[in-house]
Design brief:
This protein is about 30% helix and about 25% strand. With about 200 residues, the chain is α/β, with parallel strands linked by helices.
Protein backbone atom coordinates (compact mmCIF):
# COMPACT_ATOMS: atom_id res chain seq x y z
CA UNK A 1 0.00 0.00 0.00
CA UNK A 2 1.13 3.52 -0.69
CA UNK A 3 2.25 5.35 2.41
CA UNK A 4 3.20 8.89 3.29
CA UNK A 5 5.42 9.39 6.32
CA UNK A 6 5.87 12.78 7.94
CA UNK A 7 8.18 14.43 10.40
CA UNK A 8 8.24 17.81 12.04
CA UNK A 9 10.75 20.37 10.84
CA UNK A 10 10.64 23.25 13.30
CA UNK A 11 6.93 23.88 13.72
CA UNK A 12 6.07 22.79 10.19
CA UNK A 13 5.08 19.36 8.98
CA UNK A 14 6.66 18.28 5.74
CA UNK A 15 6.06 15.15 3.74
CA UNK A 16 9.08 12.83 3.61
CA UNK A 17 10.23 9.49 2.29
CA UNK A 18 8.36 7.42 -0.30
CA UNK A 19 7.68 10.66 -2.15
CA UNK A 20 4.76 10.45 -4.52
CA UNK A 21 3.84 12.77 -7.36
CA UNK A 22 2.81 16.41 -7.58
CA UNK A 23 0.13 16.93 -10.22
CA UNK A 24 -0.17 20.32 -11.93
CA UNK A 25 -3.38 20.87 -13.92
CA UNK A 26 -3.60 22.70 -17.24
CA UNK A 27 -6.36 24.08 -19.46
CA UNK A 28 -6.28 26.54 -22.35
CA UNK A 29 -5.76 30.04 -21.00
CA UNK A 30 -3.51 29.02 -18.09
CA UNK A 31 -1.05 31.63 -16.77
CA UNK A 32 2.35 30.59 -18.08
CA UNK A 33 4.55 32.16 -15.40
CA UNK A 34 2.59 30.52 -12.58
CA UNK A 35 2.43 27.09 -14.18
CA UNK A 36 5.98 26.90 -15.52
CA UNK A 37 7.59 28.41 -12.42
CA UNK A 38 5.82 25.86 -10.23
CA UNK A 39 6.82 22.92 -12.42
CA UNK A 40 10.40 24.14 -12.84
CA UNK A 41 11.06 24.87 -9.16
CA UNK A 42 9.51 21.62 -7.97
CA UNK A 43 11.56 19.59 -10.47
CA UNK A 44 14.72 21.44 -9.39
CA UNK A 45 13.85 20.32 -5.87
CA UNK A 46 13.83 16.71 -7.05
CA UNK A 47 10.08 16.26 -6.87
CA UNK A 48 8.25 14.06 -9.36
CA UNK A 49 5.89 16.40 -11.22
CA UNK A 50 3.26 15.48 -13.82
CA UNK A 51 1.53 18.06 -16.02
CA UNK A 52 -2.10 17.04 -16.55
CA UNK A 53 -4.59 18.50 -19.01
CA UNK A 54 -8.30 18.57 -18.22
CA UNK A 55 -9.19 19.12 -21.89
CA UNK A 56 -9.36 16.49 -24.66
CA UNK A 57 -6.25 17.83 -26.42
CA UNK A 58 -2.97 17.15 -24.58
CA UNK A 59 -1.50 20.33 -26.09
CA UNK A 60 -2.85 23.37 -24.24
CA UNK A 61 -2.13 27.02 -24.96
CA UNK A 62 -1.46 29.58 -22.26
CA UNK A 63 -3.08 32.97 -21.81
CA UNK A 64 -0.18 34.56 -23.71
CA UNK A 65 -0.09 32.11 -26.60
CA UNK A 66 2.53 29.67 -25.30
CA UNK A 67 1.63 26.04 -26.17
CA UNK A 68 2.70 23.13 -23.97
CA UNK A 69 2.42 19.36 -24.35
CA UNK A 70 1.13 17.90 -21.10
CA UNK A 71 2.26 14.52 -19.78
CA UNK A 72 -1.22 13.01 -19.52
CA UNK A 73 -4.93 13.66 -19.74
CA UNK A 74 -6.90 13.61 -16.49
CA UNK A 75 -9.09 10.75 -17.77
CA UNK A 76 -5.99 8.53 -17.93
CA UNK A 77 -4.89 9.09 -14.32
CA UNK A 78 -5.90 7.42 -11.06
CA UNK A 79 -3.76 9.69 -8.81
CA UNK A 80 -2.98 6.82 -6.41
CA UNK A 81 0.46 8.33 -5.76
CA UNK A 82 -0.59 11.98 -5.53
CA UNK A 83 1.07 13.95 -2.72
CA UNK A 84 -0.10 17.40 -3.75
CA UNK A 85 -2.14 19.08 -6.49
CA UNK A 86 -1.42 22.48 -8.01
CA UNK A 87 -3.90 24.71 -9.83
CA UNK A 88 -2.31 27.52 -11.88
CA UNK A 89 -4.34 30.63 -12.56
CA UNK A 90 -5.00 32.52 -15.75
CA UNK A 91 -8.27 32.92 -17.58
CA UNK A 92 -10.14 31.14 -18.92
CA UNK A 93 -7.83 28.34 -17.71
CA UNK A 94 -8.80 28.55 -14.04
CA UNK A 95 -12.51 28.63 -14.91
CA UNK A 96 -12.08 25.53 -17.08
CA UNK A 97 -10.34 23.74 -14.21
CA UNK A 98 -13.34 24.55 -12.02
CA UNK A 99 -15.72 23.05 -14.58
CA UNK A 100 -13.89 19.70 -14.73
CA UNK A 101 -15.91 17.18 -12.73
CA UNK A 102 -13.01 14.72 -12.35
CA UNK A 103 -10.77 17.46 -10.98
CA UNK A 104 -13.43 18.76 -8.59
CA UNK A 105 -13.86 15.24 -7.20
CA UNK A 106 -10.10 14.90 -6.75
CA UNK A 107 -9.88 18.25 -4.96
CA UNK A 108 -12.72 17.32 -2.61
CA UNK A 109 -11.05 13.96 -1.87
CA UNK A 110 -7.79 15.73 -1.10
CA UNK A 111 -9.61 18.12 1.23
CA UNK A 112 -11.36 15.25 3.02
CA UNK A 113 -8.01 13.47 3.49
CA UNK A 114 -6.29 16.72 4.57
CA UNK A 115 -3.79 16.38 1.73
CA UNK A 116 -2.06 19.48 0.34
CA UNK A 117 -3.68 21.64 -2.34
CA UNK A 118 -2.09 24.73 -3.90
CA UNK A 119 -3.82 27.30 -6.11
CA UNK A 120 -2.67 30.66 -7.42
CA UNK A 121 -4.11 33.77 -9.08
CA UNK A 122 -7.68 33.07 -10.27
CA UNK A 123 -7.53 29.37 -9.32
CA UNK A 124 -8.32 29.79 -5.59
CA UNK A 125 -11.87 30.53 -6.79
CA UNK A 126 -12.14 26.82 -7.63
CA UNK A 127 -11.51 26.00 -3.97
CA UNK A 128 -13.79 28.80 -2.82
CA UNK A 129 -16.71 27.61 -4.93
CA UNK A 130 -16.27 24.13 -3.41
CA UNK A 131 -16.52 25.64 0.08
CA UNK A 132 -12.98 24.56 0.99
CA UNK A 133 -11.77 28.00 2.11
CA UNK A 134 -14.38 28.67 4.77
CA UNK A 135 -12.71 29.96 7.92
CA UNK A 136 -9.26 29.96 6.28
CA UNK A 137 -6.86 32.71 5.33
CA UNK A 138 -6.48 32.88 1.56
CA UNK A 139 -5.25 35.12 -1.21
CA UNK A 140 -5.86 35.38 -4.95
CA UNK A 141 -5.67 37.76 -7.88
CA UNK A 142 -7.52 41.01 -7.07
CA UNK A 143 -11.14 40.81 -8.17
CA UNK A 144 -11.47 37.07 -7.60
CA UNK A 145 -11.70 37.43 -3.81
CA UNK A 146 -15.50 37.54 -4.04
CA UNK A 147 -15.36 33.86 -5.06
CA UNK A 148 -13.48 32.82 -1.90
CA UNK A 149 -16.62 31.84 -0.04
CA UNK A 150 -16.20 32.23 3.72
CA UNK A 151 -12.44 32.86 3.52
CA UNK A 152 -10.47 35.58 5.27
CA UNK A 153 -9.00 37.33 2.22
CA UNK A 154 -5.54 38.68 3.10
CA UNK A 155 -4.21 39.95 -0.27
CA UNK A 156 -0.81 38.52 0.76
CA UNK A 157 1.54 37.31 -1.97
CA UNK A 158 1.33 33.76 -0.59
CA UNK A 159 -0.89 32.37 2.14
CA UNK A 160 -0.68 28.96 3.82
CA UNK A 161 -3.51 27.80 6.06
CA UNK A 162 -3.45 24.15 7.04
CA UNK A 163 -3.20 21.96 3.95
CA UNK A 164 -4.00 24.78 1.50
CA UNK A 165 -1.53 27.20 -0.11
CA UNK A 166 -2.83 30.12 -2.16
CA UNK A 167 -0.92 32.66 -4.22
CA UNK A 168 -1.82 36.15 -5.45
CA UNK A 169 -0.71 36.14 -9.08
CA UNK A 170 2.19 35.99 -11.54
CA UNK A 171 4.39 38.19 -9.34
CA UNK A 172 4.03 35.65 -6.54
CA UNK A 173 4.88 32.63 -8.71
CA UNK A 174 8.37 32.02 -7.28
CA UNK A 175 7.35 32.40 -3.63
CA UNK A 176 4.30 30.23 -4.28
CA UNK A 177 6.45 27.47 -5.80
CA UNK A 178 8.94 27.67 -2.94
CA UNK A 179 6.09 27.45 -0.41
CA UNK A 180 5.02 24.18 -2.04
CA UNK A 181 8.59 22.86 -1.86
CA UNK A 182 8.82 23.90 1.79
CA UNK A 183 5.62 22.05 2.61
CA UNK A 184 6.87 18.87 0.95
CA UNK A 185 10.60 19.01 1.70
CA UNK A 186 11.26 21.57 4.41
CA UNK A 187 13.04 24.90 4.81
CA UNK A 188 16.53 23.50 4.21
CA UNK A 189 15.60 22.47 0.67
CA UNK A 190 14.14 25.94 0.01
CA UNK A 191 17.36 27.57 1.25
CA UNK A 192 19.34 25.24 -1.01
CA UNK A 193 17.17 26.16 -4.02
CA UNK A 194 17.39 29.89 -3.33
CA UNK A 195 21.19 29.66 -3.23
CA UNK A 196 21.37 27.56 -6.39
CA UNK A 197 19.08 29.89 -8.33
Amino acid sequence: AYEITTRLVGSEMCIRDRMGTVYVFFADGFEEIEAFTSVDVMRRAGLKVEMITVTPDEIVTGAHGVPVLCDKNIVNCDFFDADLIVLPGGMPGAATLGECDDLRKLIVRFAEENKPIAAICAAPMVLGKLGLLKGRKATCYPGFDNFLEGAEYTAAMVEKDGNIITGKGPGAAMEFALAVVELLQGKDKVAELRKAM
